[in-house]
Amino acid sequence: MNFFIISTILLFSYLLLDIIFDDYLWRRNIDFTIYLQKNTFQGEEVLFQFFSLVIQIPIYLGGLQFMFSSKKVECIIYIFLCMFGFTSNGLLKNAYHQPRPYWVEDEINGIGCNMEFGKPSGHAQTAVIIYYSYLFILYPSTFRWNKSKVSNKDDQSNNDEEPQFKCGQIILLNIFAFICIFLTGLSRVFLGVHTIGQVTLGWIYGIYIVLNYQLYCHQFLLNYIKNQLKIKNEEEVKFQRMSVSISAIFILSIVIDVTLLELNRRVFNQNENQINQWLFKITQCKHKDVGYYTKNHTNVLYNGCFLHGTLFSFIFSFIQGCFFSQGTFNQFEYSNSMEKKTLNFKICRLLFYLPMLLPLPLLLIQTYNIYLTCFLIFIPVVFFECWYLTLVYPKLLEKCKYQVKGEFLESNKDYYEQLSQN
């Protein structure tokens, strides 16, 4: 716990410094951003836009690895951590409710056109989480202090599937992750959507979350979920404690999210001229007709931050799905079974993921009512995706004869029938 205490003290120390030097960093950022935007080389804008967008790729890779590899628990935990990063950033942005530079400063060209509040930078915060947690969760040997823990695991398939990196490769991977994180933050300044202070604060929050999660939470959570997915006595209920804990955290996060939203709507942002100026800059940047983006639009200002704050619903609904399914997962058996299957068999299994695309068009509906969008469209879509994966998908595989031995959330009817007979 010493590291947690020290890191928390350092975090609060930096937060104090951030408050003291906030105006100074904003002024210095104006000059720096103008310099960057006026002194560009050919392809620089494309380069920075690339690093601003490429941050999503590791998350997609985590999803693909969930579908194709046997590291399903690791992939789930990785996506959970990313969702926690998005949720915490949405809550923090509404707590700070600080505008983006291109909304306020006429000299700064808005290239990125982000529409929600800017502090702390979501890209900077989640870049730290996304890049480094991808390495230490899915490829533990890339972090030195994980090696002893990985080598002691009984789950041999996990070790066999992970490539063995040499010391030089480990250093290069960590340097590559650092460069991606740094260029992601710099790109946000260049695009006019964040100040230096907003980016730095995002990095600080990201580092704090990643290091404390890795040191104190990851191994416990990994072992707990794997243990819950093992076959147990019929009387034992899987994911019971975790379901209750996650439910409490989900309710708390929604209460905080709603409270911050209402404070922004009724207390913090009462200058209509200022709000209209911000909305006008967003409208210009998006090349929309004046009046399209109002303060009730679900993707702007505090509304967009509120939606990000509800992404904890992904973790909640997935754990609830595991709780209701009461299924099992044997990584070693699953890996061996899939190795023996033909390519056609594996492709056919992928087709069972297609129904997850059905509700996605609902996210394009614009209601101009944030609560209607959130609780009747956004969260139900998230619930559909997670409950399809945990409750429907395994049943479809079983019914259509595409289930393999050791399947994720496999229902072990034969095992329980044997127990009842004995």
Automatic annotation (TrEMBL):
Q: Where in the cell is it found?
A: Endoplasmic reticulum membrane
Instruction: Give membrane topology per the record.
Output: Multi-pass membrane protein
* Record field: transmembrane: 46-68, 75-92, 124-143, 171-191, 203-222, 242-261, 300-324, 345-364, 370-393
| Keywords assigned by UniProt, alphabetized | Endoplasmic reticulum, Hydrolase, Membrane, Transmembrane, Transmembrane helix
SMART domains attached here?
Answer: acidPPc
One GO molecular function term of this record is: sphingosine-1-phosphate phosphatase activity
Q: Which GO terms describe its cellular component?
A: endoplasmic reticulum membrane
Occurrences of domain Phosphatidic acid phosphatase type 2/haloperoxidase (ranges)? 75-214
Q: Which CDD domains match?
A: PAP2_like (cd01610)
Among the Pfam families in the record, one is PAP2
PANTHER family on file: DIHYDROSPHINGOSINE 1-PHOSPHATE PHOSPHATASE LCB3-RELATED, SPHINGOSINE-1-PHOSPHATE PHOSPHOHYDROLASE
This protein is called Phosphatidic acid phosphatase type 2/haloperoxidase domain-containing protein
* Record organism: Paramecium sonneborni
The root-end lineage is: Eukaryota, Sar, Alveolata, Ciliophora, Intramacronucleata
